[in-house]
């Protein structure tokens, strides 16, 4: 009898041990499943129909590729940097005119694909021009009458035809939509040249007159612009004082030194805004690096810097962003314009966008603003300069073409969303790593003709092989 009991006891213990081992194995499998990486990707080729992109889940994401060297990706979700404010793009008169040619339902469809926060490119923080940009139909301002110092003839009527309806489409899709604005040139009569454009031919005269009555009139001009747009239901959240402060171009431009900008803002523009109870932020820029380092000059001058709510930059390198951040720690910065290219709208060009976004975001800039959202069938400016765009609209056939750049940003915007926190990573590849909603998202690209594998790890956790398909923009998604 005692022998029977012993055998029974052993059997029960053996079964209990087996059950415990099985339970541990099940828990481990569940845990591994919870932390297993998923890969979603966009093929860097093909046509985009009706603004819908083909995002696929890669079924072989955990299958090791044949690449000999597997680079590590190590992620540190507890080391946080800036919060992403969102993607954006630029409104312009040429694009607005093309959009207005479409039937109303098609206009709404295009706007949804650009601005709705649940689909498409999800552009939430965009740019517009104060008067004509280089993608105005021609040069114009809101104060065309010479010596109109009191702005009695001020009018935004021209923009009621296309620019304002274009912007209102964005607001209809997203009531929380934000907008920043900058002039390419002051009204012609405020400049030594007497011209908004042709600065390339008269660089020494392509400047705002250094006269108190001109400064005062220009400050009033900005105030009236913001109030006129407000009357149309459009809020200008930020005003950036001058586009490309070092530019002397065939299209509208204005060479404005840091000292002149600071003098104008401190003595005229801020007092005007205060008197008119305008809450729009005043930002310095937009600065680029093209023979001058205006952003660094401003950042190195605490007295001038204190006059501005932040600094806007475009067409600059990581080196200068690092230098600016060193001079302006914890300061407000933003990206204001993406690479314009040449109007060819190729996939090879679109394949550079992740690296371009990373160049700014990984160095502390909290947003990215594409340039022309819409252009017409010519792809050209009023000064015959062809550039890329997210969308082209043929005014003759009323057809809408979604370009490769659109597909790339529609993909990235699904994972790099406003509110995402940039987190630290170790990697030899160009990538962006963020976290939100208890997940980590790693945006990276495989330009090779074959799948490429990485060894992915969260801090000191388990390492796992993650594979990206060939010729793709991809995201690795991991649970935290």
Automatic annotation (TrEMBL):
InterPro entries: GH (IPR017853), Glyco_hydro_30 (IPR001139), Glyco_hydro_30_TIM-barrel (IPR033453), Glyco_hydro_b (IPR013780)
Annotated keywords: Glycosidase, Hydrolase, Signal
UniProt superkingdom: Bacteria
GO molecular function: glucosylceramidase activity
A GO-annotated cellular component: membrane
One GO term (biological process): glucosylceramide catabolic process
Signal peptide limits: 1-33
Keyword Methyltransferase: no
Domain Glycosyl hydrolase family 30 TIM-barrel: 85-248
Residue ranges of the TM segments: none
Similarity remark: Belongs to the glycosyl hydrolase 30 family.
Protein name in UniProt: Glycosyl hydrolase family 30 TIM-barrel domain-containing protein
Species this protein is from: Formosa sediminum
